[in-house]
Amino acid sequence: MKNIRLLPYNEAYRPSLESYYLPEAQAQYTRLPLQAVTQLGPAETGILIVHNTYPVGFFQLETENRFPNYSANSRAGLLKKFSIRVEEQGKGYAGDALCSLPAFAGKWFPELNEIVLGVNIRNESAQYVYVKAGFKDTGRRLMGPMGVQYIYSLPLK
């Protein structure tokens, strides 16, 4: 595993996120970190994927189950807006971050026992990374803003 850490978003990282870029083919499925953190709701946490001291990725975790189409489990968290900086892709950071998620969630969100997410049916590279990290296809499908999404689940406990 690479030297990565998952950290709750902190404004000290804002300057290094200002240059965060994704090509349109990827940006259509997510939001850039600075866009996402300005729209966080009360039960949403921005999570940085940090290599050494540099943020190489980001995702958001919603911890209050207001997403019954994803899971009926009241102790599930919803992972969304996952991305890795384009210049850092292909280095294993996404997989390492997802494999670190159970320990991170256990420390910061001990009430959770499952992480769920939606991944676009056309986003095959993301599907591969999620499955490799232990997420399973639940068989449920949702219509998302960019088309059909597979619903994946990762048990935590």
From TrEMBL:
Entries under SUPFAM superfamilies matching the protein: Acyl-CoA N-acyltransferases (Nat)
Source superkingdom: Bacteria
Record GO terms (molecular function): acyltransferase activity, transferring groups other than amino-acyl groups
InterPro entries in UniProt: Acyl_CoA_acyltransferase, GNAT_dom
Domain N-acetyltransferase: 4-157
Descriptive protein name: N-acetyltransferase domain-containing protein
Annotated organism of origin: Marinococcus halophilus
